[in-house]
Design goal:
The protein has about 220 residues and is an alpha/beta fold. The chain is built from six helices and six strands. It folds into two domains: about 35 residues; about 170 residues, Nucleotidyltransferase, domain 5 (2-Layer Sandwich). Strands 1-4-3-2-5-6 form a six-stranded mixed beta sheet. A hairpin with a 5-residue loop joins strand 3 and strand 4. Helix 1 packs antiparallel against helix 2. About 30% of the residues are buried. The N terminus is likely disordered.
């Protein structure tokens, strides 16, 4: 999914004494990350288990595909999962891209999901450290959502002024992802979330909205 060098942390450390070199390293890191396409499935991931109320909603609202030129608003629902009963693969992320036309018809353009790694040598490592938590999962999901947004925006919307609403259900994770606030327990992960948040806001019309978890919201669930 990602092909970010495992030497990224070392390169940044070595460059920290020279601000121009440090900035260049940051530029190259982000450029490399954005060029490594994330695999986004069309519609709903086929292997993804769907709750009954979600299935009923999708069947009752079988909206045809909305062309990018007709998209008035985009919602990106993000979510993270953490199961402390598992020894491995206990932290996961997921996202769902929903496009809306001028008649408020909604269509699931794509979705993606995966496992959060904690190995510095893993190509999808963003600086997360153990112990894990639902906070880590949610922040990671927001990072991936913004990478997907920067990579794929032109495929589901045409105008940069189109409202992009990032929907979350954990306020602490969104506080990090939408500001310069960092976490003492996850400094690298949250700092990276800050950087991508700033980048997205500078390029697109980013908005945020909260949805309460476990409230039978079809796109969030």
């Amino acid at each position: 999914m990602f092909e970010v060098s495992s030497d990224t942390a070392r390169i940044f450390k070595e460059a920290s004494g020279d601000i121009s070199q440090f900035v260049q390293c940051g530029y190259e890191c982000v450029s490399h990350l954005l060029s490594s396409r994330i695999n986004v499935h069309s519609g709903i991931i086929r292997e993804c288990p769907i709750k009954e109320h979600c299935r009923a909603f999708f069947e009752a609202n079988n909206i045809r595909s909305i062309p990018p030129g007709d998209v008035w608003r985009v919602y990106i629902y993000t979510d993270g999962g953490f199961n402390n009963a598992l020894e491995f693969d206990h932290t996961t992320w997921g996202l769902c891209i929903v496009v809306v036309d001028c008649y408020d018809n909604m269509y699931i353009w794509g979705s993606a999901g995966g496992i959060v790694p904690f190995d510095e040598g893993h190509p999808a490592f963003f600086g997360e450290v153990l112990p894990s938590s639902s906070f880590v999962a949610e922040v990671y999901a927001q990072i991936v959502a913004k990478v997907v947004l920067l990579q794929w925006f032109h495929m589901f919307a045409l105008c940069p002024a189109t409202p992009i609403v990032l929907v979350y259900d954990r306020t602490s994770a969104n506080l990090v992802a939408s500001s310069s606030v960092q976490s003492k327990s996850q400094p690298v992960l949250t700092n990276f979330a800050n950087v991508l948040g700033t980048l997205c806001v500078s390029l697109l019309n980013i908005q945020y909205s909260r949805v309460h978890s476990h409230k039978f919201h079809p796109f969030n669930d």
